[in-house]
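Regression report. Comparing outputs from two consecutive submissions.

Submission 1:
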Amino acid sequence: MNQLRHFTMLAKRTLLIIAITLTLPYCTSIPTPNIGSQAPSNSLEEHAQLANSQGQYLKAAALYEKLARNTGDNEHFLTFAAESYLNAGDIDSAERVISSLPNQLANSSVNIQLLRSKILLKQGKAEQSLFAIETIDESILTNQQRIELHKLRSSAFFQSGNIFESARERVELDHLITEPSEKLSNQDKLIETLLLLSNQALEVFKASPSDPVTSWVDLAITLKNKTPNIIDWQQRYPQHSANTNFLPNFLQTKQNNNKPAGKVGVFLPNDGPYAKSAQSIRQGIISAAYALDNNQADVTFYDTSVTPITTLYQQALSEGVKTIIGPLDKRNVADLQLLNNQTIPIIALNNFDGAAPSQTVSLSLAPEDDVIQVASLAWLKGHQRALILTPQTKFGQRIATHFADVWQQFGGTVNDVQTYPSKTSDYSPSIKSVLNIEDSESRFKQLRNKLNLSMEFVERRRQDVDFIFLIASPRDGRLIKPQLRFFHAIKLPVFSISKIYDGTINPVANRDLDQVSFCDMPSLIEPTNYAELDTLSLTKQWGRLNSQSRRLFALGLDAYQSISHTERLKNSSFARFSGSTGVLSIKPNGEVSRQLTCATFKNGHIQSLGLAPQLEKTEYFNLLEKSPTPQTSHQTTPL
């Protein structure tokens, strides 16, 4: 009996196992958790997040790319990868990752569209960046996405020189941002942006009273006054968001900036090769001191052509100097850089090799500043292929090499470089060479000889270029531009540096420079629009100055004006100051950056194009002291 019961239980158990076995293949709609594959993905994501938080962006990007391959979640992880590459400054890899996504996915994902716009902005393609987010429906965005959208638009407008539209975007951001410190930061940038505009421009941009931008424009106009009537503005806008934190902070900073500079020591040579330049700078410093500090100005000049710079520094300290302006020449600046334990601020008038000491900034008129900004102007206009026409001088070689390096880092190409002898009257050999006119003539002669026919010949220039970068003095430029026109380059845009403009109103002579675009200090292009001091009136007090003396005079003005703004500019990467030589800001290495004003010649007159573009790509330049000569498509005189 027991044996029968045991057999029956065994049979039932066997039948149950068979039934379960037969049923299993039909149960695939309920997946079992894959514990083994889930754990590594989670671990990888944690490692990627950790790398990002520690600033190891390249490592994080590589991990996110691996996660995308492992999980198939391309939109999620490749977006993180591209963002990490951007944070690391690897724009090319960020673009590669985004470009690998299917177009349908990329065009339908708001996050990817925003990221693509950010990449284009980093590449210096401000207009394309705006176009990339033009079709986004803002009504479907989260508040954070809307903030990101308007930040991108503000940055793109600012980089392209559209100051007012950049400010308008920040007005919109003021309504969207709720976090107090972020809101205050945006308000700071909003006012800094509006203060770059002249009072005349601000009055023009005033909208209707109900437009939110009007109150901010009114505030900017009020703050431009030396004694702003803030109470009147607050009575007109009692509920304005600027009343909470922004105005108290701004007014405190302005009060600190308006304090007299104290005793200022100026290190300039009275004799030697830099004495003439020093005289114009000295005049600018004196004019600024008495215009800003009236009877409280206290300026002492020290002669660097006689006494070693280290000795002068100790003498200035012992005499109670609170700030030093100078020196001017590179050797003395280098000696000053070696001083240990600098205890007072120094505004050097030439660039340092490497980073400046903590108490020091450098303000100069280096022509390389012109090069980067005129290159930015050409790039923003969509040009890619350049020709360079430069004089056979060391200066010409230096500027041409620098432009070629900058242009290639933008992503453009230099298709030819041609030098010309300066101070001649016939530039046709160089112009014909750079435009390949001689090749056209050679082809015609071969064809005529082959056919043995009398044929009419019309010269043709090369068609593989978008513009010419011309390095020339006003005299050379006035002769070269008409000859370019004669050799069929009338529609080829020409860009140059400030050297081509002599700073005088001379429509008869300057008519030969028509359609040449360049960037120069605002006090020469729009003397009443940007600078806080009336540069034109102050210059006239010293009689008639030539263009170079006027530029150096403006340098002296800005060197003294900068004393009260240096700390503010050093503490904020967005802070600006409208000077005579440009809109000033300070880079992390202590170099004062000058945003120039661009212009073009039209009917012999200067027509302003507004502030020079400040393309974000220029932040990533790592220019070598000795840049390689650009590869050219034709045999030319080497740089």
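Submission 2:
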Amino acid sequence: MQFHLNGFRSGDPTIITGPGRPQTDQLPANVDVLIVGSGSAGLTLAAQLSAFPDITTRLVEVKSGPMEKGQADGVSCRSMEMFEAFGFAHTVMREAYWVNETTFWKTDPDDADRIVRTGRIQDVEEGLSEMPHVILNQARVHDMYLNVMQRSAHGLAPDYDRRLERLDVAETGTHPVTATIIHSPADADLTEETVRARYVVGCDGARSTVRAAMGLELKGDSANKAWGVMDVLVVTDFPNIRQKTLVQAVDSGALLVIPREGGYMARIYVELDSLGAGERARNRNITLERLIATAQRIFRPYSFEVKDTVWWSVYEIGQRLTESFDNAGDAPDGRLPSVFIAGDACHTHSPKAGQGMNVSMGDSFNLGWKLAAVLQGRAAPELLRTYSAERTAVARKLIAFDQEWTRILAAQSRGAGSAPKFQEYFAEHGRYTAGVTVQYEPSQLTGQPEFQHLAIGFKIGMRLHSAPVIRLADAKQMHLGHTVSADGRWRLFLFADAVHPASFDSRLAKLCRYLYADAASPLHIYGRAGEDIDAVIDVRGIVQNDFRSLDLGDLPILLRPPKGRFGLIDSEKAFCPDLNNDTDIFDLRGIDRRTGCMLIVRPDQYVAHILPLDDFAAMSAFFRNIFLEQDG
């Protein structure tokens, strides 16, 4: 990370000081964004918005304090990449259980009272991500988001003991949404509070009050199967208790083992009863003792002795989805959205595929930077329509995946000698469960694939697939994707052409001169007076040369720009391939070495476009469709 740009400051550099107004216990009369619910979706959004001192955000939560024991635990590779942007991926990696392999078991065809291992596979294919698939208590993930918020200029924190009573939305006005909130602290009387907001985001779960106020409902398949889940400390001779394991026992049911962080605890999902139409699992009065007994029966002939149960629950599986994630309606020229929903408020499904928390956080990461761009006057409010359009498509694919996954997991084994269907399905869909298959369709924010051939390993519309590089100025080995922080800025990665980058006539040099000095440059027309040149679009250059053959001063000034009140040189804009370790980014990602290319990356780490280095007009046209011109 970089600090001391505008003068030395002692202490922890991750604590942000600035013009933000510190939060008080009293809810303000007016806010920019009101978030309802402090689950994973709500905290992701709050952490993102806390990065902007000029945006007033508040988060209300009906509970009395932060989560202690979470229902979700699986963190996909894609979510880990997002955590890197927030600055706490390394903490998660240190604490979490790493899912390295998955094993598969089924009933022995020669002995119905035994299960046998039928296969094992690497959980995440080689090279899919620089990040692992991990398991960590959802409450710890929340702690890390809360830490990001607390260190912001606002000192943002949830307002607990506050229940949303109603929402009223006006057709006009700067703060069109009025929220009526009941404050019920344990040590005081109930009070009613009224907050007017420019935008409200409901992250308040499957029984969302915000969704109900929008007139939306979850639609889809009703629950038809009950499952139990328990976090246990157990003594067992089952050989794969410390590996993710799927077991399918004829006549006994299915079971999923998820090892937990810390080395001793395991989460066990157990298939239970089929449910009648409209029946709820809670009506069956299923006990913990029954969960344990069912697991013991499935694990035969292995012992399974539970010493302590940390948490357990019974739930029913159903896949449901709302038709929209905002209140704008279908008319493209109709009213603009002012109320949104994210996470379980708009899609519900089974937890066994490990996608719930991950997709919910993805919803908010998609929405957060768009709200910030609009609230800061950098983009028109129409930009907010893209949230529902992009994320409903993601949710529909999630529901379809979960329906098939649930059906296969509960199915009986398909005969001796062949791999169970769920093993085949798991291997086939490993990229989906890693969270890296999301691809946004061409739109205002995603370009057409006309120049995809210039960098075939960076798929337009998909997340930026990071690769190793060496930073030129200090020879630091690092990942290029780790230069993207959750700060709302766009990234423009310039991959150099074959001409030496120090040459005046290289395509890289010509583009850098245009971006740095031309009055028509997007860096100037979308920046404001007094801002650094990278305030809106952060430009980075990747040359083909070995880092020892080049000096930073050889490169265009855009890749070593003066910044801040002292005009200090930012020396962290230029990178070289990591040739020592045979991980040349130009080869790994199929970048055209002769022509090079420019890679436009959204603030949420998705590749928006690929263009030739000399196509200034196409680049300018793309940004013109997103940003509003400023007075800079």
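Expected: both submissions complete independently.
Actual: both completed, but the second showed a warning that disappeared on reload.
Relevant detail on submission 2: The chain has a mean pLDDT of 92.
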